[in-house]
Design goal:
Number of helices: 18
Distance between the termini: 95 Å
CATH topology of the largest domain: Rossmann fold
CATH class of the largest domain: Alpha Beta
Largest sheet: 5 strands, parallel
Length: 489
């Protein structure tokens, strides 16, 4: 009898211990996922890659930010029907690219892998700073490839510590946001592309006469050859890409060495810094900064790359195929991003006609007000653009307030005090005017908040419309974000 009681007690204790350990392990993995940086410098790209339908990625782009900033997956789809994915990390060295490719080929069998080769020229170091180490390794699932990537990337004295992500990320507990609990980009619709939006003017570099070679490190050479041999063993075509940027002579010498290795293995390559004219790159408008193209530049490069892949690898046009519907969504979002970008450029250049033309976009909800200083527009072309938005000339009287969408005026008021709201259940935007007795003037506002919880609005951002002329405030319904204001006086 005593033995039976002892055995029963032992089983109960064992079950309790297993339950406690299961709760602890589950809590650890939940906490680890929350604390992990939701970075589009590599982590989100890898996590979204796992969500892609098996066997759907025809063109896999691997490497540094010269991949995820430069290869516009929406352009590849819109122009050629290519199902591409940017699986890359910030300043990614070849050893991380090697493990990315190994992981990628578990679920996909691309028709071509395009490898970015620029990191040895730009950051010729064998060990990255910890922030880039994190973005290049922690997105990979816990398996042998992740272990190998961490071992190849970490200094020996840091290896054990870096195996456990919370050792590096626990400090983020004071800066957590909603995005850490619900990562919107971690989805089948995200294809890894994360462009730069600024514009900086540069002189055109000329490396056409650079024929010298500069050595790679032993580690860089070893892993580059490992990539080539592994991909060739897997029977997947490989293409090297040196993406265009403001390259130096010393950097080009490194790339010349890499091209020699490519020739040795029979790997084709594109030297983007010798093809500016073929791509139509404009050094006054197409660069975000010294290392990266902006949106107009990446569209030109992506169009060029897409045409090259189509001509040389026989990639199928998947447009219209339901299996590839997520690329339709991605391309739509990229087109909207491009539209937003050009709207911001019109604001920057104070080009009212172009701004109004771009406002006529179905995804935009436009808040417009006419304040007391308005004396009428004499430019008929501007009036024509306003009418296309749904604002007739006779509507443009002092103290008019309007909400516009799809060429229609969906709300109007000529009162000194008014309120109008747009509410989809998740987000509320309040458009209102109030009279300030102290200043003897009516002020018009847009009040925008990002959440609608238990009928109480939180996180408001207030924008005050200009006090003269015709003012606009734009909200993009595709990306669920405000694009700011502009005024025509």
């Amino acid at each position: 009898m005593i033995k039976r009681v002892g055995r029963k007690r032992f089983i109960e204790c064992t079950v309790k211990l297993i339950i406690i350990l299961a709760v602890f392990v589950s809590a650890y993995f939940v906490l680890d996922r929350i604390m992990l940086i939701k970075s589009e410098d590599g982590i989100v790209q890898m996590q979204a890659y796992y969500r892609q339908p098996e066997g759907s990625v025809d063109a896999l782009f691997v490497g540094s930010s010269h991949i995820f900033c430069h290869i516009n997956t929406g352009v590849l789809w819109d122009e050629y029907g290519i199902s591409g994915f940017d699986l890359a990390g910030a300043e990614q060295p070849f050893w991380n690219s090697y493990y990315y490719i190994r992981e990628a080929l578990k679920s996909q069998r691309p028709k071509v892998i395009v490898l970015d080769i620029t990191t040895p020229g730009i950051r010729p170091i064998d060990y990255q700073p910890e922030n880039w180490f994190i973005t290049n390794t922690y997105g990979i699932k816990r398996n042998s490839n992740r272990y190998g990537a961490i071992k190849a990337s970490a200094l020996s004295q840091s290896f054990a510590r870096l195996l456990i992500p919370l050792n590096s990320t626990h400090g983020r507990c004071v800066e957590l946001t909603e995005e850490d609990f619900l990562n919107y980009d971690d989805s089948v619709y995200y294809k890894g592309f994360d462009p730069r939006e600024t514009t900086v003017v540069f002189e055109r570099p000329d490396i056409s006469g650079v024929t010298e070679r500069a050595p790679l490190s032993d580690k860089e050479t070893e892993y580059l050859k490992m990539i080539i041999e592994y991909v060739q063993q897997e029977g997947v075509p490989l293409l090297f890409l040196s993406s265009p940027y403001i390259v130096t002579k010393e950097e080009q010498e490194k790339y010349n060495t890499i091209f020699d290795i490519a020739d040795e293995y029979g790997v084709p390559y594109i030297d983007g810094n010798k093809l500016y004219d073929e791509m139509g790159l404009d050094f006054e408008n197409d660069f975000a900064e010294v290392l990266h193209l902006n949106r107009s530049g990446n569209e030109k490069l992506s169009s060029f790359i897409g045409r090259y892949l189509k001509d040389n690898y026989g990639l199928l046009d998947h447009r219209g195929d339901a299996k590839y519907g997520s690329w339709d969504v991605d391309a739509y979002r990229q087109r909207q991003d491009t539209h937003d970008y050009y709207l911001s450029q019109a604001v920057k250049n104070k080009d009212s006609k172009e701004y109004l033309r771009l406002l006529n976009e179905p995804a935009y909800v436009v808040f417009c007000c006419v304040e007391s200083g308005y004396e009428g527009l004499v430019d008929d072309t501007v009036v024509a653009e306003l009418e296309a938005l749904g604002l007739k000339r006779e509507m443009l009287t002092s103290h008019g307030a309007f909400i516009l969408n799809k060429g229609q005026c969906i709300f109007s008021s000529y009162d000194y005090d008014f309120k109008a709201g747009i509410n989809d259940g998740n987000r509320r935007i309040l458009f209102y005017r109030t009279y300030d007795n102290d200043n003897d003037h009516a002020f018009t506002y847009v009040l925008d908040n990002g959440s609608f919880t238990h009928q109480s609005m939180t996180g408001y951002e207030k924008y005050m419309m200009e006090g003269e002329g015709i003012s606009f405030y734009v909200f993009d319904t595709v990306h669920d974000k405000a694009l700011g204001g502009y005024s025509i006086k």
